Amino acid sequence: MAVILAKAGIQCFQYVLSRKLSGQVKPEDDKYLLYTQTLIRITASYLFFQIDMNMYNKTMQNYYQFMIPRLNGAEIRKKFGYYRSLVKKGVAGFIVFGGELKTLKKHLEDLQNESNNRPANSRCSSNGAANSRLDKAAELPLIIASDLERGLGQQVKGGTLFPPAMALASAFKKGARGKGQGSEIKLLRDSFRAIAEEAKYAGINTIFAPVLDINTNPGNPIISVRAFGEDTETVSFFGCEMIRAFQGCGIAACGKHFPGHGDTEVDSHIKLPVIDKSLNRLKKYELKPFEKAIKENVQMIMLGHLSVPALDNTGIPVSFSKKAVRFLREAMKYKGLVITDAMNMGGIGTFSEEKAAFMALEAGVDILLHPTDPEKIVSYLEAKNIVCNAEHLMRFRKEIDRMPAGKMPDFERHHKLSDLLTEKAIRLTGDFRIREDLFLIILNDDEQSKGTAFARSLKECFPSLKMRIIRKTADIQKIKIPETSFVVAAVFSETKAWKGGDSNWLYRQMAYIKNRADLFVSFGSPYLYDNVKGKQNDVNSRRSSNGAAKIFAYWDSESAQRAVAKAIGKRWSR
Question: Is 385 exposed, middle or buried (0-12, 13-18, 19+ CB in 10 A)?
Fold first, then answer.
């Protein structure tokens, strides 16, 4: 810009000078002289502004401001001194994991107040203009964020836990989408608003949701039911509804995981997945929900730890790739805040956290999420003396609420809403009738004890129920199954970070039981049974000709277990 203005000014000056030297001065030449003077003034002002901004950036390089470390809510009392010290050092905010609502709420308010009282220019030079801006930076709210894809109850005791994204999509018929009215769309919007209201009450001003990944790979170990669906239309529709609801309530939404984590067979918490798709394919499918989200003015986008050769053929993860960030900014015209996925994940590949952090900021990323050791990363960045642009970060923090808490949410109504959505989400494929005694087999692929609520609810409908719980230390082949029983095989396998997907043990158990089960129930991924076929019908035809029936609940909450038991109870031919 300065070069363009300077060239224009020089050309005008040369023209006027040549006229004067030739003695051919005309009255209109005074206008050119005025233009020249104006352009010189504008150029000088612009250059001084750039110099001032450059000094501002250099003196502003308190690298803590580009980080959102972890805050363990369950330990917030014990570790409050540490979290307060990070605020004093200038961190942008925290990502909250766990805790009890009342305690968490109070201490988050205290941290926000501490941020307001922080001396901003303690680490900076005596440059007056820069320090003035830093003083304003200190007045900005902390970003208090959390992974609340399923509501406040996903992280905080006392909050409501809602069904996962795929269950919500299952609860609504396609015909109801896009109409903008009606009871079904109202339920959806009520659920998203409930999540925002509870987060706001707790003191959380940013939610890392919606998931904008399209789950096109049934073997995906980390997205699965966290995605709204398997097509661009479904994911875009529900994602944009969530964005509008959150941001309409004053909560910043974050679309993730750019450019799409749906077609992977690797959990990026463990190692770096590769998405080897052409740019045309990405534009046609994976990028569509992000494109729609950008049009909805989503305030934040999270970069996935993903190797995407179509965006960067060097193998550098998108989360700290200059080319990928440039594509998001320029090709997709995104002007909001860009954040990495958690820096403690194995998806950063062979890079150290320190090197990855440096590369991310150098690439133009605005925030580093969940660094393991903030102090160590700051030391590394100070040694590199990297100059980062805080423009997007400052603007974002100006737009969020410091103390978002409003009136106490109607938690009872929210719990009822969650139960209703859970029941509406349940899907049955095939058909079945129960005439015999029920024999329940629970296959538990998770560490926690699961299935007791399901068994208890079934027992109320089927007093003669017999059951066996098979965990990873056991083998289903050692279980004797009565020949005349109606066999229900219920699988508990949660989609969660660091697990790496469903275990080989689970698939071995399912392979054994597939020819004996009359009904399969998934309290998790609906893809588990893609290759499972039940035993063929007998003469009495107690199930459909397509083999064993299947019920998909999408998650394993007690309300989901009760709802499935209720659905099974309705099929008993007494």
Answer: exposed
